[in-house]
Write a structure and sequence with these properties.
This protein is of the alpha/beta class. About 25% of the residues lie in helices and about 30% in strands.
C-alpha cells in the first residue's frame, strides 16, 4: 500500500513564483532571476532551456532584462539597487510579512533574532531588512552572551524551519533574556507538511521524500521521516528510487518546491512494485485534489486547533481547510479550543477554494446560521420563547446569539426598564421572543421586554387576588427617592416611606438600603383602585422604646447626654432615640433662671429616673435628686415655712408622633408687706 501526502508538492509561494515566470516567458520578454527561482534542479533546467537565466547579483544582470525576485525574497538594499528597472516581485507573501515585522521592530530599537540557516537566501533577505544586524541562530545550544541578554529581542523564524526546533531555541533564549517578543513565522503550509510527514512515517515500512538536495524544507521532511521510519530516502526524481525488495506500507511526501509531475512519476514507478498491484489511477488520486466548489457543505475532521484558526482535514482533498476563529463561532469570548478539539468531525461550509494559493477557506458560522434560520422562523410563527447570549452592544441595542443566529434586540426591548449602559448586558443570557422578521434581508428583531411584561402582568393579577393589610413579603429594592424606597413584592411595587426604614433619624433612604437589596416587609395600607401600596419595614423588637422599657426602671441612675435646651428644662439622651426631660427645677439644688446657666449641649451627666410613662413615651429625670443636702440646711429647711408647690414636671419624647406640651412652673403668691410704723416725734428728733 502506498500513502501519498496530501500536502506534497508546490506550496502557494513556490507555485505563485513558478507560474509567474512561465507567464512572463509567453510575453517574450528577456527574463533573469536573482538567484535560482526555487530549489529544484529540474525546474531550473527547464527555465534555462526557455531562456530564463539566473544571476547571483543585480550588477550581473543586463539592463534590458526584466528582473524576477524569487519567492525567498531579498533585502531592502536590493530594492534600492533595482530602482528604475523593470522588476517582477514574486516574494512569497509569508516571507514579505516577516520583512515587515523585522523592519518595524528594528526601527523601534529591538534586536532582531532570526532562527534559521544563515546561508539560506530567505534568511539573508530577512536580515537585509534590519541593516544586516540580526543575530542568526541555528543551534539549540547557542550561548547567549550578556550583551544580548540585556536587550529587547524580536524573534522570527525562517518559514521552512522545523517547528519543534524553533520552539526549543525560543525556550532556550527565554531562559536567559529578560525581554523577548516572539513571532511564529513558520509557513502554515510548512507546518501542515511536517505534521503529515510525521504521521505517515509512523505508519510506513519505507518513506520516500522527494525534492531538491538544496531545499531546506525538503531536508526537514527527510529528518522528520527518518526519525520515525529508519528506511527513508531523499530523492530528486524517480530515477533515484532504491532498487530494493517491496514493502507493505510505503509513504511518499515531497518538498514545497517539488513539481507535481515529478511526484506523479515517483508514484507511478513505486506502484509497479507494490503488493497487490494497486491501480495507478486510484493510487495517484490520493495525491490529486478532489473537486470542491464555493458553497459546498462537507464533513471534515479537526486535525489541529490553533489560537486563531482550526485546520480541518477535508477527506481526500489535497489541501486542508482553514477555519478562522471568527468563522467558527459568533461568540467573541470563546477561543477555538473552547468549541472544538482535535479528532472532532464537523460539518463546514466552503467559502472559497484557491488552488493557486493552496488554500480552502471554510466557515462553520455560515452553516450553523443557515441551519438555525428555519428554527428562527418556526419560533416566530409559534411565538416560542428563545434563549440567547448577549454577545455585543451595538448602536441602538444589543446582539443576542441563538444557535448560531444573531438576533438584534433594540435598547427599549432589552430589559423591563431603561438600561443606561447596554455594555453591562454583554455576557448575560436572556429569554426573548421574535417580534419581527425580514426574510429578504435575513434580519431578526427580538424582545426581552414582552416576556418580562407578560410575566409581570401575571404576577400582578396573582398579587391583587391575595393582597391584604398585614401580609408579609420578601421584596427587592427597585429604586430610591428622597421620600422612601420602592420595593418589588412580586410583580408590583410598594413604597417604604423614609420614616419606616429606620428607628433612627435619616436624611435619605440610601443610608439604610440600596437598589437590589432584599427586604422583609409587610403591607401597612393598600388601595386597590389607585394601585398604591404602603409598606412597613421597621421591626417592633428594634423599637428603641421597647428596648428601653426592658432596661430602665424608676429609681435607676442613668448616664445621659444633654441634647437640647428648652425654657422649661433640658432633654438628655439616655440611649439612641430615647430622651428624658430634666425639668428646670431638677437641674440644680438652687433656683436657676434657665437650663443654660448650669448645663451645656453635649455634656454628659448622671440623673435619677423619677417617673416613667411608656404609653406616652415620657421619662422624667432629676439631677437634683442626686445632690447631697448638708445637715444644717436640712434642719433649716425643716423649720422654714414650706415653699409653695411648683407645677408638676412634664416629660416629653423626641418621637414625632407624640404631641409636645409646654411645661409651666407655678410661682407662689407674693406676700403683703408689713406696715411701717412711724417713729415717735421725740425719737425723730
Amino acid at each position: 500500500m502506498i500513502k501519498v501526502a496530501k500536502t506534497a508538492g508546490f506550496c502557494y509561494g513556490v507555485k505563485r513564483a513558478v507560474d509567474g515566470v512561465y507567464k512572463e516567458i509567453d510575453s517574450e520578454k528577456k527574463i533573469a532571476t536573482l538567484g535560482h527561482l526555487i530549489h529544484n534542479p529540474q525546474v531550473i533546467d527547464d527555465l534555462e532551456g526557455k531562456g530564463v537565466i539566473s544571476y547571483d547579483s543585480v550588477s550581473e544582470i543586463p539592463k534590458d532584462y526584466t528582473v524576477v525576485i524569487r519567492a525567498h525574497g531579498v533585502g531592502k538594499n536590493i530594492y534600492d539597487e533595482l530602482e528604475g528597472r523593470e522588476v517582477i516581485d514574486l516574494t512569497c507573501p509569508f516571507v514579505s510579512k516577516i520583512h515587515r515585522i523585522v523592519s518595524e521592530h528594528h526601527d523601534k530599537g529591538y534586536q532582531i533574532v532570526i532562527v534559521g540557516d544563515k546561508n539560506h537566501p530567505e534568511v539573508i533577505g530577512i536580515n537585509g531588512w534590519c541593516g544586516g544586524e540580526a543575530v542568526i541562530i541555528n543551534d539549540v545550544n547557542y550561548k547567549i552572551d550578556e550583551n544580548l541578554a540585556e536587550k529587547d529581542l524580536c524573534i522570527v523564524a525562517q518559514t521552512t524551519i522545523n517547528r519543534e526546533f524553533f520552539g526549543e531555541i525560543v525556550q532556550n533564549i527565554k531562559k536567559t533574556c529578560k525581554s523577548t517578543l516572539v513571532f511564529d513565522t513558520i509557513c502554515s503550509a510548512t507546518k501542515d507538511r511536517q505534521k503529515e510527514a510525521d504521521e505517515i512515517s509512523r505508519n510506513s515500512d519505507m518513506m520516500i521524500v522527494i525534492g531538491g538536495k538544496e531545499s531546506s524544507n525538503t531536508r526537514k521532511l527527510f529528518e522528520i521521516s527518518k526519525r520515525n521510519c529508519p528506511v527513508t530516502y531523499h530523492i530528486e526524481t524517480f530515477e533515484d528510487l532504491p532498487q530494493e525488495k517491496t514493502y507493505n506500507k510505503i509513504g511518499i511526501t515531497a518538498g514545497a518546491s517539488t513539481p507535481g509531475s515529478i511526484i506523479e512519476e515517483v508514484v507511478k514507478a513505486m506502484s509497479e512494485n507494490v503488493k497487490n498491484e494497486e491501480n495507478f489511477a486510484e493510487l495517484f488520486a490520493q495525491y490529486e485534489s478532489k473537486t470542491l466548489n464555493n458553497g459546498d457543505i462537507i464533513d471534515g475532521t479537526v486535525v489541529e486547533v490553533r489560537n486563531n484558526e482550526v485546520i480541518v482535514d477535508l477527506g481526500g482533498f489535497k489541501y486542508n481547510g482553514q477555519l478562522a476563529a471568527d468563522q467558527l463561532t459568533d461568540d467573541p469570548s470563546l477561543k477555538p479550543s473552547d468549541v472544538v478539539k482535535e479528532g472532532d468531525t464537523i460539518k463546514v461550509y466552503v467559502v472559497g477554494v484557491n488552488d493557486g494559493e493552496g488554500k480552502v477557506v471554510l466557515s462553520r458560522k455560515k452553516l450553523v446560521a443557515m441551519e438555525s434560520w428555519n428554527k428562527i422562523k418556526a419560533a416566530y410563527e409559534s411565538e416560542e420563547i428563545l434563549e440567547g447570549k448577549i454577545v455585543k452592544a451595538v448602536k441602538g441595542g444589543v446582539i443576542a446569539l441563538t444557535d448560531g443566529s444573531q438576533v438584534f434586540i433594540p435598547a427599549r426591548q432589552a430589559s423591563g426598564r431603561f438600561v443606561q449602559d447596554l455594555q453591562s448586558l454583554v455576557g448575560t443570557t436572556v429569554n426573548y421572543k421574535i417580534i419581527e422578521i425580514d426574510e429578504r434581508r435575513r434580519r431578526v428583531i427580538g424582545s426581552v421586554r414582552v416576556i418580562l411584561e407578560a410575566e409581570r402582568k401575571e404576577r400582578e393579577e396573582k398579587f391583587w387576588a391575595d393582597a391584604e393589610v398585614g401580609k408579609k413579603y420578601q421584596g427587592t429594592v427597585k429604586s430610591l427617592t428622597s421620600f422612601g424606597a420602592f420595593v418589588d413584592i412580586g410583580g408590583v411595587d410598594g413604597l417604604v416611606h423614609i420614616s419606616e426604614l429606620s428607628w433612627n433619624k435619616i436624611k435619605h433612604p440610601s443610608e439604610v438600603v440600596k437598589e437590589g437589596d432584599v427586604l422583609d416587609v409587610y403591607i401597612k395600607d393598600i388601595n386597590a383602585e389607585t394601585k398604591k401600596i404602603s409598606l412597613g419595614f421597621k421591626k417592633i423588637e428594634d423599637n428603641p422604646w421597647t428596648i428601653a422599657q426592658s432596661k430602665i426602671n424608676v429609681g435607676d441612675v442613668v448616664k445621659c447626654k444633654i441634647v437640647r435646651m428648652m425654657p422649661f428644662g433640658a432633654f438628655a439622651e439616655i440611649m439612641p432615640n430615647v430622651d428624658g426631660l430634666i425639668h428646670i427645677s431638677q437641674i440644680a439644688d438652687r433656683r436657676i433662671g434657665k437650663p443654660e446657666d448650669v448645663l451645656t449641649i453635649g455634656e454628659e451627666v448622671e440623673a435619677k429616673v423619677t417617673d416613667l410613662n411608656w404609653d406616652e413615651k415620657k421619662i422624667s429625670l432629676s439631677i437634683r435628686a442626686l445632690i447631697p443636702v448638708p445637715e444644717k440646711e436640712e434642719e433649716a429647711e425643716e423649720e422654714a415655712p414650706a415653699e409653695p408647690q411648683k407645677a408638676e414636671t412634664l416629660v416629653y419624647s423626641t418621637d414625632p408622633d407624640v404631641e409636645v406640651e409646654e411645661a409651666i412652673e407655678i410661682e407662689p403668691a407674693e406676700e403683703e408687706e408689713a406696715p411701717v410704723e412711724e417713729a415717735p416725734a421725740e425719737d425723730a428728733e
